[in-house]
Amino acid sequence: MKKKKIGFRPLALCYACLFYLFLYLPIAVVVAFSFNTSQLNVTFQGFTFEWYGRMFENVQLMQSFFNTLIVAAVSTLLSVILGTLCAVGMYRFKFRGRETVSNLLYIPIVIPEIVLGIAVLAFFTMVKIQMSMATLIISHVTFSMPFVVITVRSRLAGFDPSVEEAARDLGANDWRIFRRVTLPMILPGVLSGAMLALTMSLDDVVVSFFTTGPDSMTLPIKILGMVRKGVSPDVNALSTLMILGTVLIMLAATFFEMRMEKKEEA
Amino acid sequence: MKKKSNKIPFLSTVSPAIIWLILFLVLPLLYIVGISFMKKGLYGGVIQTFDLTAYKTMFQSKYMKILLDSLWLSLKTTGLCLLFGYPFAYIISNTKKKWKPFCVLLIMLPFWINSLIRTYGWNSILREQGILNTLLMQLGIINQPLQMLYTDGAVLLGMVYALIPFTVLPLYSSIEKLDHSLLEAASDLGASKVHVFRKVILPLTMPGIFAASVQTFIPSLGYFFITDMMGGATTMNIGNVIKNQFLTARNWPLGAALAIALIAVTIVIMKLYTRVGSIEDMV
């Protein structure tokens, strides 16, 4: 069995490398052009760090960058709180309409994003609420919260209820049980839900496009407006810094996770 | 004890999420259904009278063609994503245990860099004076720059690029769950590699394939920004039409009716899907 695999390995390795190349090629291009002397993002003329200084002068660009971060942070926090509470409640209490709640939570997962985007836009227009950062955050929470519920619920599925009972018998109240017993046990689920929510918020274009106000544009929406006219290299510079930040955070997270796993094993 | 009925903690846990979803999901969706039966306002918005014009317009051949073209594009996208994604998912789920988290991380990483920025990278590669054309001309393979950007091929490439991580992840987790003793048993019993794949691996990973298809197909229906950035002026996806009706043409009822068509397609797909798999496999 093992001998047969020899012919297969180099080919597999090649394929995997080509696949990753495909995934990372456009990212590499964005990075490369951030060091380009040419004003236009067309041909590579020479190497410069100029755009890394210039981008700070581009007030609108910096604003959209901060908007992206604020929206991602706030919507993730809200999704995690709402989603975790909901998952714990659904696990602990039997109630009529549990099925319905489950199905309700599936809607944002399966619905095409554009439908959610226009629905929120139309609805807020009807109730005369202007699109702003608040509507942007609201729409992001709507599509990411169900993912938190699902990751937390799948963690709760393997949860031994007798531990909670023991805590109660020892005199702990609901809140104390939640903080000292339930929360530590579901924490990995909560964290992976948070990661999903953050990822989706940062990656979202479609929903944001409809629910953003003129002053709360996120970076992708800003770039979308610039593409046909040509994007200036300071956008590449900012994107490169974001990529760098992302890589560092992901590496730190993986490192942290590996250490936690080791601890759990020990 | 576990399933006791206790109103206050119950209300404080489940109801915030429910109220949120009713307010910001259910009501807006119902309103979209409502709008589709209304008359369009002169300057955008709607006039609240019952009217079927939106649906009559939608069933004109022009919009039906766009809808069918979009479905076809999404189908091609899904097919290509499965074709290229499956072998890749298979390979990374068979790497050494040590390397797996790293391999998966490398698929997740691009998600953190907004898909629009990544698509813009392709834009730089494919455009008339872009990297690929420059390279081909310098190598003497072509004399004239090729028209690569703003074509249907570019749109398909952009779609596959944006969606293939969504295909790979569910495939990976289902291939990962394969019981390897079954494969060994099959080959010990004399099955060839092709046979093992067709009779054992493929059927066992079918739930993953279904989940991956849904995960790819449904989002692809609304990705208007890919057609915006990679397609020509005439390339229209259903997503672009809906977007235009809401933002430029200001025919909200028509946009809403088209959105209902998308919802209908989604419901049909989910009905088919839930016969063979669960939604939780998709996360």
UniProtKB/TrEMBL annotation, chain A:
<feature type="transmembrane region" description="Helical">
    <location>
        <begin position="133"/>
        <end position="152"/>
    </location>
</feature>
<feature type="domain" description="ABC transmembrane type-1">
    <location>
        <begin position="65"/>
        <end position="253"/>
    </location>
</feature>
<feature type="transmembrane region" description="Helical">
    <location>
        <begin position="181"/>
        <end position="202"/>
    </location>
</feature>
<dbReference type="InterPro" id="IPR000515">
    <property type="entry name" value="MetI-like"/>
</dbReference>
<feature type="transmembrane region" description="Helical">
    <location>
        <begin position="65"/>
        <end position="91"/>
    </location>
</feature>
<comment type="similarity">
    <text>Belongs to the binding-protein-dependent transport system permease family. CysTW subfamily.</text>
</comment>
<keyword id="KW-0472">Membrane</keyword>
<keyword id="KW-0812">Transmembrane</keyword>
<protein>
    <submittedName>
        <fullName>ABC transporter permease</fullName>
    </submittedName>
</protein>
<dbReference type="InterPro" id="IPR035906">
    <property type="entry name" value="MetI-like_sf"/>
</dbReference>
<keyword id="KW-1133">Transmembrane helix</keyword>
<dbReference type="InterPro" id="IPR051789">
    <property type="entry name" value="Bact_Polyamine_Transport"/>
</dbReference>
<feature type="transmembrane region" description="Helical">
    <location>
        <begin position="103"/>
        <end position="127"/>
    </location>
</feature>
<keyword id="KW-1003">Cell membrane</keyword>
<keyword id="KW-0813">Transport</keyword>
<feature type="transmembrane region" description="Helical">
    <location>
        <begin position="12"/>
        <end position="35"/>
    </location>
</feature>
<dbReference type="Pfam" id="PF00528">
    <property type="entry name" value="BPD_transp_1"/>
</dbReference>
<feature type="transmembrane region" description="Helical">
    <location>
        <begin position="235"/>
        <end position="256"/>
    </location>
</feature>
UniProtKB/TrEMBL annotation, chain B:
<feature type="transmembrane region" description="Helical">
    <location>
        <begin position="71"/>
        <end position="92"/>
    </location>
</feature>
<keyword id="KW-0812">Transmembrane</keyword>
<dbReference type="InterPro" id="IPR035906">
    <property type="entry name" value="MetI-like_sf"/>
</dbReference>
<keyword id="KW-0813">Transport</keyword>
<dbReference type="InterPro" id="IPR000515">
    <property type="entry name" value="MetI-like"/>
</dbReference>
<keyword id="KW-0472">Membrane</keyword>
<keyword id="KW-1003">Cell membrane</keyword>
<feature type="transmembrane region" description="Helical">
    <location>
        <begin position="153"/>
        <end position="172"/>
    </location>
</feature>
<dbReference type="Pfam" id="PF00528">
    <property type="entry name" value="BPD_transp_1"/>
</dbReference>
<keyword id="KW-1133">Transmembrane helix</keyword>
<comment type="similarity">
    <text>Belongs to the binding-protein-dependent transport system permease family. CysTW subfamily.</text>
</comment>
<protein>
    <submittedName>
        <fullName>ABC transporter permease</fullName>
    </submittedName>
</protein>
<feature type="transmembrane region" description="Helical">
    <location>
        <begin position="252"/>
        <end position="273"/>
    </location>
</feature>
<feature type="transmembrane region" description="Helical">
    <location>
        <begin position="12"/>
        <end position="33"/>
    </location>
</feature>
<feature type="transmembrane region" description="Helical">
    <location>
        <begin position="200"/>
        <end position="226"/>
    </location>
</feature>
<feature type="domain" description="ABC transmembrane type-1">
    <location>
        <begin position="67"/>
        <end position="273"/>
    </location>
</feature>
